[in-house]
Amino acid sequence: MTDATVRLLTPEDWRTYREIRLAMLQESPGAFSSRYADAVRFEEDTWRGRLSSCDHHLAELDGDPVGAAGLSVAQGPVVQGDLIGMWVRPQARGRSVGALLVQAVLDRAAERGCDRVRLEVVDGNAPARRLYERMGFVATGVVAAYPNAPGATESEMVRLL
After folding, report:
1. Domains annotated on the chain, with CATH
2. Helices (H) and strands (E) in the chain, counts
3. 116-to-66, 71, 74, 112, 129 alpha-carbon distances in Å
4. What is the pLDDT of residues 123-145, one digit of tens each?
5. What is the pTM of this model?
6. Which of 64, 93, 108, 109 is deepest in the core (most CB within 10 A)?
7. How confident is the model at residue 147, as a pLDDT?
């Protein structure tokens, strides 16, 4: 178990979000569609905009940011949430921080009326896949080329709410 806390970020938290986002892009550059070299140049308005257009959650241990996960919601016949930007600092892994973040995203998705939450996980990332399976996600069988690594693939997983 962990003594981590998770909170929903607001546009006023843009500096904190910038810090954690840049950390994730440096530590795991192949895991995200964004690049550190681009993100480090973003202005305040861009960071605030990201926090206005999606729900981003921050995990903290003793007041220090140790992880983040986002929720993007698409309206349609099925209201779908996408779990995006999931990451936990290496020193905080194995302390249930990831599970707290995923649960926060699931709770927020339910609050926002989502019927399901979808994510994509890079094939070969066994720890992430095990976490998502423990949290009730099921592979759909949809596999696509992963754009950040030639030859790599990613699998879609879904959890109904």
Report:
1. 5-115 (3.40.630.30)
2. 5, 7
3. 26, 12, 11, 11, 18
4. 989 999 999 999 999 999 999 99
5. 0.94
6. 109
7. 82
